[in-house]
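ARCHIVE RECORD
Type: protein–small molecule complex
Small molecule: adenosine-5'-triphosphate
Source of inputs: curated submission
Record status: active
Notes field left blank by submitter.
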Amino acid sequence: TAGQMAEEFGTEAYVVGGFVRDLLLTRNNLDMDLVVEADGIAFAKKLAKKMSGRVKYHRKFKTAVVILPDGQRIDVATARLEYYEYPAALPTVELSSIKMDLYRRDFTVNALAVHINPSSFGTLVDFFGSQRDLKDKTIRVLHALSFVEDPTRIMRAIRFEQRFNFKIGGQTLSLVKNALKLNLFSKLSGYRIVHELKLIFTEAEVLGSIKRMNELGVLEAIHPLLALNTSREQVIAELERVVSWYNLLYLEPEISIWKIYFLGICMGISKPKIEQIYNRFSFSQTEKREFVHLRETIFWAAGNIMNIRGELRPSEIYKILSPVPLEGVLFIMARTTRDIVKKYISQYLTNLRLQTVDITGDDLKALGLIPGPQYTKLLYETKLACLDSIVKGKDEQFNFVKK
Ligand code: ATP
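STRUCTURE (tokenized, with ligand):
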């Protein structure tokens, strides 16, 4: 459809970036990026109409996103010569606008395009040796100033390297080291660093990227307190296991996996010093408060649950773990080396927290109790009492399987 529309528009259209890369790597990728050599917003509006989708756009960047009825997203960008302003990085020859568009990108493996106009539908456009790099499993930048232009590309290089099991190319690696020597990270906003860290922390495998960031000095460049040590590394390895176990059980959008790894890289940093990290990441007051709460509840609950001698009743487990956000509960699970504590946490996650009590505020009202804050307390007490009777004898199903 988009290709035919390009023809009607009298323009050229291409699918670019990660979608093409993943196509050649035979990996699934549902996000499609289109580049058109015309007004991308007008194009996106028309495409949305044709495909019964919605459109959102960014006038300033001349980009738009079409959201199809099934939820698929198609990003549409405008490739026009007049938008490119990197004289230092560009050779003097004039390039076609698709070539310029691809040249601005992060790595050769992301700089492939497929022409989608009907006349040459499916033609692969490869100006920079991208196919060779995909074959050689190499992450390579397009020009020597790439990391100067945008140091977050260093984190992106590591993310792709680890995800695809590629290697950062020799010259590119020297450029990474140079950029770090030049202290380019100090100029990066906390917001951009956090954005890239979140992307790394939501990959299926995280430890490899964290170790690589540490090896190259990226973590220290972000903040010296973040340098990896053995205990952090061990906990992060265990976090990976706990998170994939949990992901197999539940699909809960409200849990932010990145926060768990964030706790991992900050493990052992004292309360007064962690402020420096929050500031480096430009956390808002709300984000700060959230992390302070997370760390405090973990500290409190971990202290309680790990010091336990003898068996804990379901209600006691619930009392200790329910004030902790789920990210924190998973963190405690990764940190503990005691199987019994892992078992308690597994029991809490798979059962206790999900038990509902068949009593509501209305029932209490019917009993003649005056509505007020005591309701919450009463309902909580009732839940605790119920847990001990419901859950009795079901222990065997809460085995956390260790890899
Ligand atoms: P993923 O599979 O993680 O979604 P992707 O390659 O699709 O990877 P996006 O972050 O969605 O990555 O970016 C889309 C495209 O935009 C990339 O393929 C890349 O060409 C380009 N891009 C993204 N970020 C940068 C950047 N910082 N510098 C240059 N190009 C970038």
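CURATOR ANNOTATION: Residues 285-306 form the longest helix (22 residues).
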